[in-house]
Amino acid sequence: MSVPKIQSPVKEVSSSTFELLTLDVPSTQSPNPSSLAFTPSPPSYSNDSFQWVQPMIDNKKRKFTPKVMAPSFDVVASLLGTTLTPSAKKAKTASRTMVSQLVKHERIETTVAKAKEVRRLAENMVQLGKKGTDSAKKFARGFLRGDDVIHKVFTEFAYRYKNRAGGYTRLLRTRIRQGDAAEMAYI
């Protein structure tokens, strides 16, 4: 049994986008408002932005107005498979771990991009160590991993860099990693 498609009038959504509403009506029955199934046309694309517009349904009991949803960049990027960065929680955890390892071993090898981020965070930790206040210790305890690392920041590093205003770390570019040709550096 074939189902004829009835097209409703065109409604203007924006200045450059139009939407057609189609109704699926069985051929043996008369059109009854309660038996009509509204199906929206596929998402409309415009040069300005991506928009999905839901149809307007007039009913005695309810009135639905059109809803415009613009998906976020993360949704579009994940659909296209172009998300290259980890989630914020994973990135923060990795940064905390790398700063803690840097304080513990005083040198780590990583990619240049990660080294630049770790350098920024490590210099902030040394600044906190130089302050030596209770609030600085509380913040460092929440960020760094391990009591030995926290103790090292507030005793050894605070004493070592007491006369230096900044520039506690150095970034030395070392090699190109063979597996993915990433530029590596010691920090």
From TrEMBL:
InterPro entries xrefs? Ribosomal_bL17 (IPR000456), Ribosomal_bL17_sf (IPR036373)
A Gene Ontology molecular-function term?
structural constituent of ribosome
Q: Does the keyword Ribonucleoprotein apply?
A: yes
Task: State a GO cellular component annotated for this protein.
Answer: cytosolic large ribosomal subunit
Organism superkingdom: Eukaryota
The keyword Ribosomal protein appears for this protein:
yes
- Which Pfam families is this protein grouped with? Ribosomal_L17 (PF01196)
**BP-aspect Gene Ontology terms:** translation
Keywords of this protein's UniProt record, alphabetized?
Ribonucleoprotein, Ribosomal protein
Q: Where is this region: Disordered?
A: 24-43
Which family, according to UniProt? Belongs to the bacterial ribosomal protein bL17 family.
Identification of the protein by name: 50S ribosomal protein L17, chloroplastic
- Source organism of the structure: Taxus chinensis (Chinese yew)
